[in-house]
């Protein structure tokens, strides 16, 4: 089995960043992509992706079998929302594992929510998505998108054995299309794919991440505005 590198791993934080300045693009204006409103926020941040990541996502969609499309749940995530998600799930992990040291709690947390300082969604290069048919009906992928390791008994892991043959085949369909255009998967979450962020750079052995943390679309004064 290949090693799963958690987002809390020091190697992720150690990746250099070479911000390319690509803008965030509003997916609500991209007719070819189907968006789901489950993660919708007040300013539409969730519906944004860096231009290069979006271009690759559209290429990947063209590689899907006839009649199958992507259903996108979340792209960009503002830094303060990432911090809130991380702190909330870390509290859940502390309650479930009261004897574990802080570093282990951070690692357990990062299996489901990224530490804010390396968060792929905050770079605008990560996307949570599933597959649907022509009428928008979701295909079986083994768990709901965003199912926790606890509620899914680990079936959220991309290579989990405890899913149906059909779900495994659908995960392979996603993998083939998204990997072919340069995305990488976070192996603890079948629905989470990214391009250009630090995790991507580490897995693809790129010299640096192309996308650093960026400000929400409403706060940007043209181009990409680094937040830190
Ligand atoms: C839980 C999910 N929505 C998610 O995005 N997790 C990853 C690891 C993240 O926080 O970047
Ligand atoms: Zn994600």
From TrEMBL:
GO BP term (any one): proteolysis
Site described as Transition state stabilizer, positions?
77
Q: Which GO terms describe its molecular function?
A: D-Ala-D-Ala dipeptidase activity; metallopeptidase activity; zinc ion binding
Q: Which residues cross the membrane?
A: none
Active-site residue list:
189 (proton donor/acceptor)
Q: Domain of life here?
A: Bacteria
What's its catalytic activity?
D-alanyl-D-alanine + H2O = 2 D-alanine
What does the UniProt cofactor note say? Binds 1 zinc ion per subunit.
Q: EC class of this enzyme? A: hydrolase
**Record EC number:** 3.4.13.22
Described by its record, this protein's role is as follows:
Catalyzes hydrolysis of the D-alanyl-D-alanine dipeptide.
Q: Which HAMAP family match?
A: A_A_dipeptidase
- This chain's protein is named D-alanyl-D-alanine dipeptidase
The record lists the lineage as: Bacteria, Bacillati, Actinomycetota, Actinomycetes, Kitasatosporales
């Amino acid at each position: 089995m290949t090693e799963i590198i958690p987002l809390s791993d020091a190697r992720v934080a150690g990746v250099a960043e070479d911000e390319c300045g690509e803008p965030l693009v509003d997916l609500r204006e991209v007719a070819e992509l189907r968006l789901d409103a489950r993660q919708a926020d007040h300013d539409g941040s969730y519906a944004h992706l860096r231009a290069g990541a979006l271009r690759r996502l559209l290429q990947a969609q063209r590689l899907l079998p006839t009649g199958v499309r992507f259903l996108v749940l979340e792209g960009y995530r503002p830094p303060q929302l990432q911090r809130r998600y991380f702190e909330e799930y870390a509290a859940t992990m502390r309650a479930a594992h009261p004897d574990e040291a802080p570093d282990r709690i951070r690692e357990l947390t990062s299996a489901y929510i990224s530490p804010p300082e390396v968060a792929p969604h905050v770079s605008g290069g990560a996307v949570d998505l599933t597959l649907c048919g022509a009428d928008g009906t979701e295909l079986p992928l083994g768990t709901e998108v965003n199912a926790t390791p606890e509620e899914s008994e680990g079936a959220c892991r991309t290579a989990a054995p405890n899913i149906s043959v059909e779900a495994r085949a659908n995960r392979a369909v996603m993998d083939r299309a998204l990997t072919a255009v340069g995305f990488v998967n976070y192996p603890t979450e079948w629905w989470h794919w990214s391009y250009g962020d630090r995790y991507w750079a580490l897995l693809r052995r790129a010299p640096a991440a192309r996308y650093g943390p960026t400000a929400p679309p409403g706060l940007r004064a043209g181009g990409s505005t680094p937040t830190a």
